[in-house]
Design brief:
By secondary structure, the protein is of the alpha/beta class. The chain contains 31 helices and 20 strands. It folds into 4 domains: about 280 residues, Rossmann fold, CATH 3.40.50.970; about 55 residues, no CATH class; about 200 residues, Rossmann fold (3-Layer(aba) Sandwich); about 140 residues, Rossmann fold, CATH 3.40.50.920. The strands form 5 sheets. It has a 6-stranded parallel β-sheet, sandwiched between helices. It has a 5-stranded parallel β-sheet with strand order 1-2-3-5-4, with helices on both faces. Helix 1 crosses helix 3. It binds thiamine diphosphate and magnesium ion (MG). The site of magnesium ion (MG) has 6 residues, from loops.
Length: about 750
Amino acid sequence: MTTDLAVLDRIQRRVLWLSAWMVHHANTARPAGDGLKVGGHQASSASVVTLMTALYFGALGPRDAVAVKAHASPAFYAIQYLRGRLAADDLRALRAFGGLQAYPSRRKNPEIVDISTGSMGLGAVSATFGALASRYLLDHGGPDLPERVIAMVGDAELDEGNVWEALGEEALRHLGQVLWVVDVNRQSLDRVVPDARPRQLAAMFRAAGWRVDELRWGRRLGARFAGPGGERLRARLEGLSHAEYQRLLRHPAGTVRKALVVTPDGGIDRALDGLLADLDDAELAALVADVGGHDLALVLEAYAAAARERERPSVILAHTVKGWGLPFAGDPLNHTLVTTAAQIEALREALGVPSGAEWEGFAPGSPEARLIAGRPPLYTAPAPRPAPAVPESLDEAYPDRLSTQEAFGRVIAALGRLPVADAIVTVSADVAVTTHLAGWMNRKGVYFPVARPDPFADLPQALRWRESPAGQHIELGIAEHDLFLLLGALGLTAELSGRTLLPIGTLYDPFVTRGLDALYHALYAGGKFVVVATPSGVSLAPEGGAHQSVITPGIGVALPDLAYYEPAFAREVEWLLLEGLRAVAERRESLYLRLTTAPLDQSLAPAAGAAYREAVLRGGYRLLDGRGAPGWSPERAVSLFAAGIVVAEAVQAASRLREQGVFPSVFVVTSPDRLYRELRAPRPWLETLVTADEEDVPIVSVLDGHSHGLAFLGGALGVPQLALGVDGFGQSGTRPDLYRHHGIDAAAIVRAARTLLGEG
Ligand SMILES: Cc1ncc(C[n+]2csc(CCOP(=O)(O)OP(=O)(O)O)c2C)c(N)n1
Ligand SMILES: [Mg+2]
């Protein structure tokens, strides 16, 4: 054990060196050209060097996946290099175009990064939902992979509310395979963190049902504390505020003693002074910096204890020094500091790295190389199995009047009868019933890692709440961050565990923005899933402005890797949901369906058929054709483009316009996003919708959401356009009230058309 520790210590010094050096190199040796600072977080890396060395060279098993604290990426890359998974040239390209990313990114470096991190708080939580996803897989006959999930987290990162949103989720309490390692360096970006924080953290993790292990001091200080009079030293150190302790770390060695033994009234604590008399100044300075998170043996013990816990998640609160071993260790402003030439030179000497050997690892046959060679391999996900086949259509029969939300409920219930349903898992943040998942849930049950009796089992209930490990619906608290991070995690099991799930999440459309950062992260991290957002827009009329969504069409258009659709008719919902699931199965993209509770007359829809289906998927189709009417001329023609529920308004407007001698065509836009994205295609679908004789025909667009969602149409077709939509906050009223108020009703469409024809 002793030899191992000595070898591990030499390894951690090399990790420290390489992480500091690659950042220094990125900032000094590479011509930047643009005058921008490269940056790279030497101090944040140094603070986890011991924790990460102990993990990657002493604790990690081949079935363990890791999410690394975003700002520790240099230390992570140094470790991957020493473990033979990166080359020195990779390290040289840190933060360069095409090189290693600033923060660990599965999207860019899937061969080494298990779980993407970056935006504070999201990485550790996605990893933890990843553990829930793998538990779900295991409970549904899948592999037990990854077997453990370990997240390294910054202490100030835990300020982010989404962390506690997640830790409140009851299912997580049952995940014994989760370990968080918190780097308690008592510093954030700008400041020393509040003194009560570590105590609060321990209490909050305990309250969430976690096993808490705190590594406050190292063994050398521990031994002193246990010796005669040692409690006095402990009381003195633990009585210091964070800022006072950080100050102690910054003191020149010669002044630490004075700082410790001088009492507030200017006297001398003789007992304490005597207690420290056997230490010279340098020894004393080193002793007070002996925190638990830099004591390799303690850290290894803590990892072993956490691995034995199987019933509940564990957290290790490891006290560390930000910038450990660097000249700016403990400096409250060290977050963005990068070593000077003189400082890196001194560090090289201090860490025993020969000049010219800056990029070297360990020589073959050296004790360090032998230790590394003896470690089990790092996690590599199994190759994904072929995904389940998704049918093209269900051929459901729909009633004459139906909303797209009701259609979704029917489609998902019908899907439940097919074999592909085995791969489907639904998730909702406390709105499963109101988003029409009840039929599906009755059939498939609710997932919970342990079976629980239904307290209402003997009473008549419209929805059976049967919770068991076999269930296929996961119900979350009212926590949209959790919804999107869990969807992202369930949507990444193909890559991380070798099994493809088809996750479908439901929420109210106005609350997409509530979880938007998490949705963005889930997509960036590579998750593939379906989001059904319903109801949307002001069509939810009496519910008022707080529940109506205005800006989500723009979000749907803008988010990468996510196809946004707003179907009008029930058949379209069926086709789009099936196609979305196929896109998930084939790892192409995610789907965002924006639905409504307002019913629409289904007899307005085109007859079902392959051409109609293709047009729906491509983003739109012509519903009513004005060109066939006697007397048609382009000067008297107008194109009405409508998305979703307001197609009914466009159809009504068309009929009034015809009465006024105008020749309207009505186009249904099923996806503003698809139409927009495909503008750069050689033959954009939008251009195929209109004909050559319509090339000067102006456009009125309308949707139940902000007008800019369709405002690109006129520019794309080179014709004048008036874009109608909801450009202010909503309010309560009837649907006609609100459509009139926001100018998206048939009358407003008619007015806009006449304005464009110069008859305003
Ligand atoms: C959501 C978000 N807000 C702000 C930042 C900017 N930021 C980067 S690091 C940091 C402080 C992190 O402190 P901590 O988690 O304690 O990290 P460490 O001390 O280990 O560097 C902040 C605020 C960010 N990356 N993400
Ligand atoms: Mg910190």
